[in-house]
């Protein structure tokens, strides 16, 4: 799943740096993720994984790192990858 | 001191509609038939003028450049600003008749028949200004890189937000006075800090109770929920709240740190070429005036001497 998230970050140019330079725990906001971009990214993740983030997850923390996104998505689709 | 004078109804009592009716019957506001669109009395206007003078006194040493734009701004400017991403529900676009004589005859016929004549209207290049500072950023960007130390502006405009309500503190057309600081992150944060101290001091000098609280803008939809959460998490918006006519106190001043949002969007550069940061303090002029009428009574001549001295002294 993390690879799919990485692919999406690269395709959508979500951050200002090369996604390969990011670790799973790197702070995406520090890497250039803006508020508006994080919304586009959220919608793209919903499309990609066929999920809908509930309101409680619509926070900065949910999208702060690849690991954090992975955790939230796993929780939503009910499977650990 | 307890700012509630004896003439003040307790905050939260009576409700917004009752306060609005009091303002109408006292002649402070005049009904027009559209919620949120009111005439203002001479006293009401004078209170706003005096309050603005007080604000200028507090800001005096800062030497802001004053620049006033009309309450309409170029449509492309609003489109680029991102306002429609965040607040599509509040925006107002000016439409006009652009047809020929045959269309005019149809228009009159539709009017006479009580039909919806607005079908014959087309969008103009003008939108109503949603916040006094929106036309400023592209203006500053055009001037080229900023001088060392950044810039400070003093703005005021009638603003439009489409949110009809019988809460007098939620008007569709209202005035916003703003100071906008553009510069380095440190400069703009220091500016906001200074107003977070001055704001409550200024409001308390008018015998009004207030508190500062973390806030968020009313962003639209699910994406907006996320923007609002981001804004709160990062402490980007604070409001000065005064009990006016609702159970919840009303935001009368706001203190906003935009980070480099407008700097990047419009290409405003610091002296070293990096995107500028910006912050603003906004005064809801009608809201402050309403707070004064709510707490000190409908007749300004009867307001406490201490308050009159600050405003008229």
From TrEMBL, chain A:
InterPro entries found in the cross-reference section? ACP-like_sf (IPR036736), PP-bd_ACP (IPR009081)
Q: Name one Pfam family in it.
A: PP-binding
Residues in domain Carrier? Answer: 1-77
Q: Which domain of life is it from?
A: Bacteria
Protein name from the UniProt record:
Phosphopantetheine attachment site
Automatic annotation (TrEMBL), chain B:
State whether keyword Nucleus applies.
Answer: no
Keyword check for Acyltransferase, yes or no.
no
Question: InterPro entries in the record, alphabetically?
Answer: aa-tRNA-synth_II, aa-tRNA-synth_II/BPL/LPL
Q: Highest taxon of the source?
A: Bacteria
A GO molecular function for this record?
aminoacyl-tRNA ligase activity
* Domain (Aminoacyl-transfer RNA synthetases class-II family profile) ranges: 159-304
* SUPFAM superfamilies xrefs: Class II aaRS and biotin synthetases
Q: Which UniProt keywords apply?
A: Aminoacyl-tRNA synthetase, Ligase
Protein name as catalogued: Seryl-tRNA synthetase
Organism from which the protein derives = Kaistia soli DSM 19436
């Amino acid at each position: 799943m993390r690879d799919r998230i990485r692919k999406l970050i690269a395709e959508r140019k979500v951050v200002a740096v090369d996604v390969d330079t990011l670790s799973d725990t790197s702070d995406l906001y520090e890497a250039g993720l803006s508020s508006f971009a994080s919304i586009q990214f959220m919608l793209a993740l919903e499309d990609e994984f066929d999920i809908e983030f509930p309101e409680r997850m619509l926070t900065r923390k949910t999208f702060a790192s690849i690991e954090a996104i992975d955790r939230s998505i796993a929780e939503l689709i009910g499977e650990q990858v | 001191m307890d700012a509630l004078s004896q003439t003040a109804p307790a905050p939260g009592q009576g409700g917004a509609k009752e306060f609005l009716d009091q303002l109408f019957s006292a002649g402070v506001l005049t009904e027009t038939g559209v919620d949120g669109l009111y005439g203002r009395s001479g006293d009401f206007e004078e209170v706003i003028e005096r309050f603005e003078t007080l604000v200028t006194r507090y800001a005096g040493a800062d030497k802001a450049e004053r620049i006033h734009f009309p309450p309409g701004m170029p449509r492309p400017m609003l489109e680029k600003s991102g306002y429609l991403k965040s607040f599509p529900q509040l925006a107002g676009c000016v439409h006009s008749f652009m047809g020929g004589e045959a269309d005019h005859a149809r228009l009159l016929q539709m009017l006479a028949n009580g039909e919806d004549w607005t079908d014959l209207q087309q969008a103009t290049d003008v939108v109503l200004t949603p916040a006094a500072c929106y036309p400023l950023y592209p203006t500053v960007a055009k001037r080229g890189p900023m001088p060392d130390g950044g810039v400070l502006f003093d703005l005021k405009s009638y603003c439009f937000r489409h949110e009809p309500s019988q809460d007098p503190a939620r008007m569709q057309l209202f005035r916003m006075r703003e100071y906008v600081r553009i510069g380095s992150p440190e400069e703009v944060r220091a500016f906001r800090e200074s107003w977070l101290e001055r704001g409550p001091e200024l409001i308390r000098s008018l015998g009004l109770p207030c508190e500062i609280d973390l806030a968020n803008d009313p962003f639209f939809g699910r994406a907006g929920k996320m923007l609002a959460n981001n804004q709160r998490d990062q402490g980007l918006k604070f409001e000065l709240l005064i009990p006016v006519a609702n159970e919840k106190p009303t935001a009368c001043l706001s203190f906003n740190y935009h980070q480099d949002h407008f700097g990047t969007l419009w290409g405003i550069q610091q002296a070293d070429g990096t995107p500028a940061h910006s912050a603003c303090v906004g005064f809801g002029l009608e809201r402050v005036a309403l707070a004064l009428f709510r707490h000190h009574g409908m007749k300004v001549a009867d307001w406490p001497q201490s308050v009159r001295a600050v405003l008229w002294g």
